[in-house]
Amino acid sequence: MSICKQFIVSGRVQGVWYRASAQQRAQSLGVSGYAHNLVDGSVEVLACGPEDKLAELEDWLWQGPAHAQVTDVLTEEVEFRELNAFETA
User: Fold this and answer.
1) Which of 8, 7, 14, 27 minimizes the C-alpha distance to 83?
2) Mean pLDDT by 10-residue block, N- to C-terminus, for the chain (89 residues)?
3) What is the pLDDT of residue 30?
4) What is the CATH number of domain 2-81?
5) pLDDT of residue 14
6) In this predicted structure, what is the pLDDT of residue 1?
7) 75, 7 in Cβ contact below 8 A?
8) Which residues are catalytic?
9) Which of 9, 33, 54, 62 is positioned for an S-S bond with 46, CB 3.0–4.6 A?
10) Domain coordinates of the chain in residue numbers?
11) Spatial CB neighbours of 10, under 8 Å, sequence gap ≥ 6
12) What is the CB-side half-sphere exposure of residue 51 using CA atoms within 13 A?
């Protein structure tokens, strides 16, 4: 069964290839959704897929790419959406 979760990732997550790296990780897990920068310096990640794959993605979001410094990941399950890919903006 597929679900969707929204993650708000805080810390040093903009300007360090966080969104592109999250996209690569999500695609490798077969998860759809998106990663967007927010005006407060955090990154919003919406991910939809099997719950175990979203748990793996969440674990990765806490680490991020090499130059990221994640301080918090707020997680909320949201209404399911059928998405075809994982995109960045």
Assistant:
1) 27
2) 96 97 98 98 98 98 97 97 90
3) 97
4) 3.30.70.100
5) 97
6) 82
7) yes
8) 19, 37
9) 33
10) 2-81
11) 41, 42, 70, 71, 72, 73, 74
12) 4
Residue reference for tokens 């919003």: 44
- Contact, 61 vs 13, CB < 8 A? no
How much is the pLDDT for 64? 97
Beta carbons within 10 angstroms of residue 69's beta carbon: 10
- What's the gap between Cα 22 and its chain centre? 6
DSSP string computed for 10-73: EEE-SSSSHHHHHHHHHHHHT-EEEEEE-TTS-EEEEEEEEHHHHHHHHHHHHH-STT-EEEEE
According to the model, what pLDDT value does residue 82 have? 87
What is the predicted pLDDT for the residue at 89? 79
Q: How many residues does the chain have?
A: 89
Q: How far is CA 55 from the centre of its chain?
A: 11
The DSSP code for 48 is: E
What are the C-alpha distances in Å from 15 to residues 19, 28, 85?
Answer: 9, 22, 23
